[in-house]
Amino acid sequence: MPEFTKTTLSNGLTVLLKEIHTASLISSWMWYRVGSRDEAPPLTGISHLVEHMQFKGTPKYPASMMDKAISRDGGMWNAFTFLDWTTFFETMPADKIDLALRLEADRMRHSVFDEKEFASERTVVASEREGSENEPLFQLGETVQQAAFRVHSYHHEVIGDMADIKSMTRDDLYRHYRTYYVPNNAVMGVAGDFKTKEMLGRIKELFGKIPSAATPPRLARPEPEQRGEVRLSIEGQGETAYLQAAYHFPAAPHPDFFALSVLDSLLAGPSNLNMFGGGSISNKTSRLYRALVDKELAVSLSGGSTTTVDPFLYYITLTIHPKRMPDEALAALDVELRRVQDELVSKEEVARAIKQARANFAYGMENITNQAFWLGYSEMFADYGWFLAYLDKLALVKPKDVQRVAQMYFRPQNRVIGTYLPSGKGEA
Amino acid sequence: MCAQRKSSHPATTSFPGPEDIHRSVLSNGITILCRANFNSPSVSIAGYINAGSLFDPDDKLGLADFAASALMRGTEKHSFDGLYNELESVGASLGFDSGIHATGFHGRALVEDLPLLLVLLSETLRQPTFPEVEVEKLRHQLLTGLAIRSQDTSDMAELTFDELLFQGHPYARPEDGFPETIQAITRQDLADYHRHAFGPRGMVIVMVGAVEPKKAADAIGRVLGDWKNRDQVDALLMPELKRLDETVRRHVTIDGKSQADLIIGTNGPRRTDADYMAASLGNSVLGQFGMMGRVGKSVREKSGLAYYVYSGLSAGLGPGSWSVSAGVSPANVKKAGDLIVKELKRFIKGGVTKEELLDSQANFIGRLPLSLESNGGVAGALISMERYSLGLDYYRRYPDLVKSVTPSDVLKVARKYIDPDRLVVAVAGS
What we know:
Oligomer: heterodimer
Distance between the termini of chain A: 54 Å
CATH architecture of the largest domain in chain A: 2-Layer Sandwich
Structural class of chain B: alpha+beta
Strand order of the largest sheet of chain B: 1-2-6-3-5-4
């Protein structure tokens, strides 16, 4: 694993750099510690809308010019908003990266947030939400998430509620932007074909003069322990039923995370944490596939958690077999979960999960954008050391650790069960 | 057999070309292309067999697709669970998918597990057993997939678009069939199809990763070199496509949807046509470049009507399509459609400006390093080279090829295909 450099500029901007000379590409990521968890009604979805407005230009780099310049150079750029963070990246031919750096520095402070541009972007985001609402699994996921978090702001979807998307104002957005888009609330990760000293010098030149500001506080209202299982159901079109089981899970820095990652591999196949790593490893010999899909209670299943600052959820999602009912699948799911709680898993199964993680890491190494992604992403919930130590930590997991976390987290009292019931069920 | 090098290996600085692609043809007709990449201890394989839904009888539409999925359901040596256990235990993957002309495969593994990946590829291609129990399980999964498709606005708009554009041509049929045709397919149908359609003649396999190319080719030869199939039937000839006489519209109603999908388009070139590059660059200006080109600017940026709107060429061995797709609120379907048609009219009236063309040309050339970065990206490029006879030096000639297109070439190809009075307009949603 190549070396990396981590430093903090005098204005508080944390910078991580990693030289990779396998292709003449550089990928640069700017992460802000702001996401949907920093929002309360009537401003849910504001972080995502601000992210969209960051593509609408600054006086120096008008929207059309930025887009054109990056595309002309054959670059790729995009942005993502999540629960805990918002990130912007550019991957460019190595000799063209300066443009991306200048642009990112400029829009940390000088984005315009033009009223007219906002009016049209608001409807674009409303359309994005309408597209998601078309999907039964979005509808179910949103309902389950709301039921799992009564107090914590992980309660709402990243895109926000339609009522808020439609009512927030340009000034709300601008205030949010100026509060959170400050260097001392940001982490920059750059990987690729550069010399560290030169790159750091250029970053200092471009970003070092941006003044720091009060570090914005995070909205943190801890979710009290759930008192017993919550069950809910929603109804919609179609012939297909879905079931989602969501278990409260620890935050990524928690020591149990690694044993739970092994358990995830065993139960539902390995989760691929890479953002740009290509397809994932299938899960057809996972315990839940064998118990649910092979036995024809479901036609497909997926499982996985995500890396968050505060405790979030582990989801198991089932597409129910057309000839079965969700309750039958749930009963079989519970049998399997009891099995990992009652019986020690074998050492071979644990070793297998570790090998699967090693393969996913190797696939992720094929691509510089993904390696640059990890530099900053890991800093959002832990630090880059977390990523570097990941495989070693996983290798320390023992069967009894897997059993202990299975008993601790996969309790019915700790979960929300949601079902999507098709109105057309039975007519098929 | 696989020489794995340390990461100090020199950077891959050039694009794939004749001196670093190893190409060979086995005596049974399999073409092999390999290229090394020692940047990660992983390897990707990909390829195809000339067998697809073109062979499907109308009443058993979906047969090729069903068969492709069923290859992994059991072989003479492994059960379904046994096959996947081998793969998943080492974090490898292998999968098949079927199109109209070909059944494709793709896999990846840590380089230490390449021998296993190749053996399982050979086994699933040559010795699938289509176990009855597994076929029935798969059938339910496919039927559920079709039930989900019928509720998916984007899938249904695409299906409707193809049905209208390719009337009377095999391209009008969905490769995954319909519920009644999937019900009609028997285990014996799958086995018969496999016996006639699957064979080494015309097969292409590529490998990219931490293996010396010659050694990679030898390893492939060892597992697939002795494959013979005297029953293998060659691909069928395709009928000519009849062009549209007038604009045709269809709205598929799917209740309870907050967004409708809209596709407006017409015929497009084949991948092998001389004017493909001009069409591709024109398409970039129309609905790709930057945030989705001209249609993006009009429908998304200015009017705020859609989160996504873009144009695309679908160009393969046979007649292609050229279309604009958008996801819009049901109330805005007409408004968005009018804006799209307005852009199409502008496109064939004035073509593209020199400046717009230069932008897209720079983008096409500049994005190569990014698209050819991963093993999977290079594997896809090698497959296209072989499939469309582009030549091993394609990426060396590519910049000149791109730069040689003029605005009048774009205008000519735009007018050849796009006629605003002969369009397909397909909508799916509430």
